[in-house]
Amino acid sequence: MSDTLEEFNEGLIRFIGESPTPFHASKSMAEQLAAAGFTELKESESWTLVPGERYYLLRNGSSLIAFVYGRESLIDSGIRMLGAHTDSPCLKVKPNARVISAGYYQLGVEVYGGVLLSTWFDRDLSIAGRVTFRSANGSPVSRLIDFVAPVAMVPSLAIHLDRDVNRNRSINPQEELRPLLMLADDDPDKFTFPALLLAQLQKQYPGIEVREILDFELSLYDTQRPALIGLRREFIASARLDNLLSCYLGLESILAAKGDQSCLLVCTDHEEVGSASACGARGPMLDQFLQRLIPETSDRLRALDASMMISADNAHGIHPNYRQKHDAEHGPLLNGGPVIKVNANQRYATTSETSGLFRLLCDDLGVPVQSFVSRTDMECGSTIGPITAAEVGVKTLDIGVPTFAMHSTRELAGSQDAYALMRVIRAYFARPRAPGRFDGQ
């Protein structure tokens, strides 16, 4: 657990650097929870959950729920929930991955989520994800792989061959985003992508027996490590700040939970593409967990009435070079504190009551609070907040840490904001009064 700003940022940098895919992020969180005494729950088994104990659950290897079963009554005190997502926009490898062009081996890739395409050029890229194969006994087995070293690049076209590139550039993701792997052999069939995966499996898991590569879910990622930057080290630059930053502060918060109040962290996959999957926020994962926790419908609804969900996802900081893209009265500053996200059309699930409670928590800790509202003439993004509120029926707040270059391969956030938000979430998890019930209702 991180008790100082320096410890927190060191842990955040390490966590993001070791989590190139949702599978790796979920595995890392699960390992830290297990080391802290959390018991793993298997969905294939029956459960007997005991107040005072701590649990975690994985689904698809890419989504996770961590739960502290408090000693206080669930019906009276509810559950303090925090939601985040494990996925980030990226380039994913296509099933027939090998492409041969002009004497080079390349990778066929597909765009995942709202990628800032231009930021993927001229980066030292590696490959990571999950591989499923036929094992020695004939059964399917999955393992995570990570090449770690840079093995690919998407080279830009020289300006001499495109004189208008700085005035008018559009990117064709099918034709122009294929990463370069190596020179092609005289016999082009000498290299196959399954053979490359087999070699990587044998490197990472010595002695493993693989009869056949069946399939894979692999992503490209930038190998540049996260770093504290700026003359005063005021900023953190990294890939996947959206939204592994929120996953990490949620993890650090629930690891510090004392155990009197019930609290829950849910980190789901596929938010960047709509969350509609078995392990996404639009799927049944959280609702099914709550059903097994509180089987009786009336009791579960009463507990939800006393509960609250905070959806933690990055917010847009006001960009000094593009101030006209922001509402002048709602431009969060990096290191200005966590941001309450508001949208009249329910792209965010914030209400006056949920934001009011958050402001009280921040005020008690001396943490400044900011607000974000999109320009009225611009469309607003969304989060798992409205989805969870609709699927589960729990009062919800959307908050986040102000960020630049969201969905780039290299995003930028303040080096103080995530730690400040973690302090607020720890107080929220420990709050003795049912957060979902408000006076005057």
Explain what you see.
Its EC number is 3.4.11.-. This is M18 family aminopeptidase. InterPro entries: Peptidase_M18, Peptidase_M18_dom2. Belongs to the peptidase M18 family. With 441 residues, the protein is of the alpha/beta class. The protein folds into 2 domains: 5-88 and 239-430, Aminopeptidase, CATH 3.40.630.10; 90-222, Roll (Aminopeptidase i, Domain 2). The protein has 11 helices and 20 strands. It has a 9-stranded mixed beta sheet, with helices on both faces. Helix 1 packs across helix 6 and helix 6 (241-255) crosses helix 11. It is globular. 44% of the residues are buried.
CATH architecture of the largest domain: 3-Layer(aba) Sandwich
What gross morphology would you assign?
A: globular
CATH top level of the largest domain is Alpha Beta
Number of domains: 2
Radius of gyration: 23 Å
Number of strands: 20
CATH topology of the largest domain: Aminopeptidase
Quick one: CATH superfamily of the largest domain?
A: Zn peptidases
Question: How many strands, what sense, and barrel or not for the largest sheet?
Answer: 9 strands, mixed
Q: Structural class per helix/strand content?
A: alpha/beta
Overall mean confidence score, pLDDT: 95
Give the helix proportion (percent range): 25-40%
Proportion of β residues? 25-35%
Distance between the termini: 38 Å
Biggest sheet, strands in spatial order? Answer: 1-2-3-13-4-14-18-16-17
Number of helices: 11
Poorly predicted spans = none
Family: Belongs to the peptidase M18 family.
Keywords: Aminopeptidase, Hydrolase, Metal-binding, Metalloprotease, Protease, Zinc
EC number: 3.4.11.-
Cofactor: Zn(2+)
